[in-house]
What we know:
Chain A is α/β, with parallel strands linked by helices. Helix content of chain A is 36%, strand content 25%. Chain A has a 6-stranded mixed β-sheet, with helices on both faces. Mean pLDDT of chain A is 83; it is low at 244-248 and 500-508. Chain B is mainly alpha-helical.
Amino acid sequence: MQTDTRPVLHATGISKFFPGVIALDDVELALYPGEVHALLGENGAGKSTLIKCLTGAYGRDGGTITLDGQEIDPRDPLSSQEAGIGTVYQEVNLLPNLSVAENLFLGRQPRRFGMIDQRRMVRDARGILSEYGLEVDPARLLSSYSIAVQQIVAIARAVELSGKVLILDEPTASLDRDEVQLMFSVIRRLTARGLAVVFITHFLDQVQEICDRATILRNGRVVGTLKLAEASRTDIVTMMLGRQLEEVTRHPDRGVPGEVLLSLRGFGRRGAIEPFDMDLREGEVVGLAGLLGSGRSETCNAVFGADPADRGEARLRGAPLGLSNPRAAIRQRFALCPEDRKTDGIVGELSVRENIILSLQARQGWFRPLPRARIEAIAEHYVKALDIRLASLDTPIRLLSGGNQQKALLARWLATDPALLILDEPTRGIDVGAHAEIIALIERLRADGMALLVASSEMEELVAYSTRIVVLRDRRQVGELAGGEISPAAIVRAIAAEEGAAKEEVLA
Amino acid sequence: MRHSTKLPLYITIATFLLAYALCIAEYPSMLSTRVVANLLTDNAFLGITAVGMTFVILSGGIDLSVGSVIAFTGVFLAVVLRDTHIHPLAAFVIVLLITTLFGAAMGLIIHYLEMPPFIVTLAGMFLMRGLAYVLSTDSVPIDHEFYGWLQSLYWKAPGGGRFRITGLLMVLTFAGAMLVLHRTRFGRNVYAIGGSAQTAQLMGVPCARTTVLIYAVSGGLAGLAGIVFSLYTSAGYSLAAVGTELDAIAAVVIGGTLLTGGSGFVAGTFFGIMIMGLIQTYIVFDGTLSSWWTKIVIGVLLFTFIMLQKGLAWVTTGRIPRASASAARS
């Protein structure tokens, strides 16, 4: 609830420069007592940089922070904590090897005759936690409780130590629905006590449920601060993405999709993606659209067996199929180009040639090495076919540009002649030229009869090549667009649509 | 899940009791105050060293210098008592100061230069061994009357066991360490740093002070162990106590302390020491076995306990009770 009182925390003109980058440019943030304030923005918008400037983890290059009317200058997380700003991160910053009570009281344990008074500490901890609606045994190890309980213990510690402003950095990212409600009940108790809470998340449903106001960042600038009661979700998404949502010309010739290759029913993984149904046909590109954290990558990983589904069934051309690990998926000629090329894709020190044949060789088995001539032929074929620009096949792949690395990774999987190709953010971080080539390649593969599943945050790109688009929100499928109804505006509408209204709105 | 952290401790105690029962079954005379008294006396210096090592390992570090510190302490005492007229008690104070400061210096380097404890204490090991050589390359006997008096102090228990002052010192060290580790903020900070140094720092644990203190405790206790060792052998020799650091680490691990830090009990270390001493006693009683069997049994025990820890970690991480949402909505 916003009140007319002065803001408890007021940051103005916050700027932060990194070499060659302006991370924050004249950012203002005002927090009122008793409000939950959402900080929204896509990746790289500057949310975490702003938080780090507020908590003193980064030194800021400009701007002032006032807390309760007093100017403060936090130099490190401890000093901001003492000033009154507590922070809880997604990955719990507590000690799992100590008891719940010790985590609450570490550094300020009650003492008697110079010795820690265990009994009093446990009793006090139980008292504090019951205020948060948590009935746990504080004498037990922190690690014996779920992440949700650990998060709440972390919140309790932050509030006990600081007690004016609480910053929650994606606290719900690894919680399931009941646990999110538990977290929200705790947040409501705190705001009732007059605390100001900053809530950072990618889940817009949660923002609208718990937050009073939102500040939206894009490219290090504040795009706007709005009252959530007065804003529609479409406004928020449009502000976050900041794109002119003009219609993109679609290639008219989509061809006719072939047989159903892979059919998923009730497929899902606890804490990653809610159960969904999906059919992937030969000669069809299925696009996965949604904001960051909506479950795009999770869907890709579940289909490939990298983070195997724990419910539902998969059928390959009608026959039951187990997708419990990537090896099983590779055996069925599935292929996945992961989102994080550098850590999950390339083997940086190996040559381009070795990187290209890696999957083929792995499928064949390491005791039956591919003949040298064949390796050479495959590598040269794909370098030519995909126009990978390099000095020689012996070049270590890490020396290639992002676009060429991505093409080499595609070559790796194309060499295995996949039936289903899963691409997670195939165009992230590559230049415009390579971007167009990869889109053209996706078109070509579809025309050749391959089934493709492509996750991307670039809506124009999805619109350009997808036969169908599945829209995800909060780790759930919320809509599907096909044929003429595919357009960036329709995707935004589907992402922003209110609960339950998604499908109708799309059809309308 | 309290029992899951204490389980290794209980297993260690059970192992000791079982091993002792088996020994008694074969040699009934092993159930005597003599054997118990000798267990304490013979392992006093190793036990005191292992207490310091427990602090270090609980914090996620390692201290390889303790064996050399023991040798240095022995040679230092022998040379000082031979060449000067300083009273042994004064010499004890001086040598404890030196070894404590030496440990603190290693802690400073480990913390501020962010060097791995393994390398820093390896350097410390060579340094102290070298200093011992500088003082004397020969074994120097100690024949001070104060030493004779200390050695003559014992309590003769019914059954003929002689409980000496060194054994008492070890037991007191263990008791003190338990109090410090579990009932003081410094002790809890040791566990905190062992859990995650970065998180501990964020939670306001004074990491610099704690790290320096931990290695100072280890160095100081190694010095104390050196004094006990010189009382035990009545000599100082620069080649003494080679490999003691490894015995101490073995005792700590057998005692159920996690080598990665953050979990374990000093009481476990005590039983680790007792188990190792018991094996040696058994070999003496048997008379035909080579003393190398001690090493073999300790090796097997170490493997067993490491596997056990892995197994326990695997079992406990699989069964985490979730928070009941209904409890929270109340």
